[in-house]
Amino acid sequence: MSADRLSLDIALARKTFSLNVRETLVLDGVTAVFGPSGSGKTTLLRAIAGLESGAEGSICFAETVWRDSAEGNFVPAHQRAVAYVFQDARLFSHLDVRGNLDFAAKRARKAGRAPNVDGAVEAFGIQGLQDRRADSLSGGESRRVALARAVLSCPDLMLLDEPLTGLDRAARREILPFLKRLPEQSACPILYVSHDLEEVAALASRIVVMREGQVLANGPIGEVGRSLDLGPLSEGAGPASLIEVQVTRIDTDGGLMALDAGGEVLRLPAAPGTQEGDRLRLFIDARDVAIAVERPGPMSIRNILPAQVGRIVSSDTAADALVDLFFGGEMISAQITRQALSELQLETGQQVFALMKSVRLAGDFR
Amino acid sequence: MPDLGPVLLSLHLAAVTTVILLMIGVPLAYWLATTKTGLKPVVEAVTALPLVLPPTVIGFYLLILMNPSAPMGGAWVSMTGGSLSFSFAGLVFASVIYSLPFMVQPLQSAFEAVGRGPMEVAATLGASKLDAIWNVLLPQSARGILTACVLTFAHTIGEFGVVLMVGGNIPDRTRVISIAIYEHVESVEYAEAHILSAGLLIFSFVTLIGVYALNRSYRLRVS
C-alpha cells in the first residue's frame, strides 16, 4: 500500500472556536489525530469527510480535489469515498445488523475491491449478531458492527472518531485487536482521532498533534514524540511518554526481554509472541518515573538509566512539577513534587538517573 | 337505513386529501426540519395558520380564489369546463389547505427527532441525499408519518366550516358527514343526526386513542 497524500488548507470559524489547518498529511496505515478535547480534531475530520459545508479553503486527497472554496468547488460527502466511524457508532436503528452491513455493501465504492459481507462478519466477530436489532447491542458489539459497516463501503480513506470513547475497560480490550487489524481489513489509510496517548501509541504509526484548532506537529510518531512533549496533551492517562524500542534479546529463563531504547537497555517482562528484532512502543506514565541525582544502591527497580534534565515545568499553583529527561535521543517525562524539585536542586542540563518503576507496552490497557 | 352517501364522500375526500398532503408535506417538513434560513419561522407560521384562523376566514378567501372570475378559478374552468367552487375538487383543494398543519407538524417533529446523525452516516457510506431520505429518514420516521396521516385523515373528516362555505350542500358531491348532520338537525331529524354524530364521535375517539398509543412524542405543538 503506497502512501496517499491529503493536502489540507482549511479555515472554519465558529462562535467560540476556529480551525486553521494548513498541512499536507502523508497517510500510510493509521495516522492519529491527537490532542485535548476542544482542539478541533473532530471538526477537522468532519471537514475532510464533507460534513462541514462551512469549511473554507481546499482539501485534496490523492490528486482528487474535494473542496476548493475559491473555485466554489464542494464534493458532497457521499461522493468522497470516505467512510466515517462516529464516536457513538450510529448504527441505523430501523435495520438489524445484517441490514446495516448490507446498506454499506450495496453502496460500496468499487475501487478495484468488492465488499465481502461474510468476510467482514467473520473478521469483526459478529457472527450470531446479524439478526439482532441495532439498539439491542452492547457498546462493544455496536462499535464492531460500525467498523465492519465502514469497511464494507470500500472507502479510499477511513475516518475514525474516538471509536473507544465511552467504553469500559473490558470493552476497550475487546475492540482493540479489531482496530489493530483494521488497516489490512480496509486496505486503505486511516485517520484516527483520539485524545488518549496510549490508544494512539497502540494503533498509529504517524501522528498529527492538534491544539486550539491548529496543527502543532505532524509526522512519524517516534519523531514527533522526540521533539514534542505529548504527555500534557493527553487526557485520561495524565502526563506520559511514548518511546519506540527494539527487542534485542529474549531471556526465556527469567521471562524478561531486553529492549534497545536509543542505545540504552530496558528490561521488561517478555510479551507473548514477541521476537527478537521486533519494534515496540512503550508507554511510560510520568508518575512512574523517579529521579535520583546519584546512581542509587541495590534496589528492586530494574530500569535505571543515566539521563540529562531537559525542560522543567512547574507552577506555583500545582504541587507537582514535570521534568523532561533525555537519554540516547529519547525523551521521557517525570512527574515529581515541587518540594522534591527544589530539594534536589534540579537544573536543565544536569546529569541524573531516571528510575522507571513501571514501563509497559502501549496498548496493554492494564 | 341512513343514506351512506355522505359517509362515502367523507372517506373519499379524506383519503384523497391525505395522499396529496403526504406528497406536499414530506418535502415541506424536510425543508423546515433542516433549513437554517430566516425564512423558516415565516413558513412555519403560514403552515400553522389554519389552526388558529376561524374556518370562515379560510373559507371566505378560498371562495374568492376559486371564483371563476378569479385567476385560479378561471384557469380551472378553462381546463376542466366546470367550476372549482361547490365541486369535489374544490373540497379537496380546501381540505389540503386547512389540514396542512396536521400533516406537516408531526412530520417535522419526526424528522427533527431523527436528526442529522443517521443522515450523515448514510452520506459517508455513499448514499446520495434522496437515497438517504428514502432509505433512512423515512423508515426511521415511520411512526411519525403514520401519525401525520391518521391525524390528517381524521381532521379532514371532521371539518365543517370551510366545507360548508366552499362546497355548499350538494348530495354526492359536497355533502360530507358534518354537513349532513347539520342538515338533519335543521330538519329536526334527530334519529339520523344521532347515527352520523355517534359514528363520527366513535371514529374520532378510536383514531385518537390509536395515535396516542402509537407514540406520545408526535403531538401537535400549536393546537
Main attributes?
heterodimer, A: about 375 residues, alpha+beta, Rossmann fold, OB fold (Dihydrolipoamide Acetyltransferase, E2P), 2 domains, six-stranded mixed beta sheet, about 35% strand, globular, B: about 220 residues, mainly alpha, MetI-like fold, MetI-like (chain B), transmembrane helix (chain B), Molybdenum transport system permease (chain B)
Question: What is the structure about, briefly put?
Answer:
The complex is a heterodimer of chains A (366) and B (223). Chain A is an alpha+beta fold. Chain A has helices spanning 41-49, 97-106, 117-123, 139-152, 169-180, 182-186, 197-203, 221-227, 338-344; strands at 4-13, 18-27, 30-34, 56-61, 64-68, 73-74, 82-85, 157-161, 190-194, 206-211, 214-220, 240-251, 256-261, 264-269, 279-285, 289-292, 303-313, 320-327, 330-337, 351-356, 360-361.
Can you walk me through this structure?
The complex is a heterodimer of chains A (366) and B (223). Chain A has 366 residues and is of the alpha+beta class. Chain A folds into 2 domains: 225 residues, Rossmann fold (3-Layer(aba) Sandwich); 118 residues, OB fold (Dihydrolipoamide Acetyltransferase, E2P) (Beta Barrel), CATH 2.40.50. In chain A, 21% of the residues lie in helices and 37% in strands. In chain A, helix 2 runs parallel beside helix 4, helix 3 packs antiparallel against helix 4 and helix 4 packs parallel to helix 5. Chain A is globular and about 65 Å long. The mean pLDDT of chain A is 85. Chain B is mainly α and 223 residues long. Chain B has one domain: Orthogonal Bundle (MetI-like fold). Chain B has 12 helices and no strands. Chain B: It comes from Henriciella barbarensis. Chain B: InterPro entries: MetI-like, MetI-like_sf, ModB_ABC. Chain B: Belongs to the binding-protein-dependent transport system permease family. CysTW subfamily.
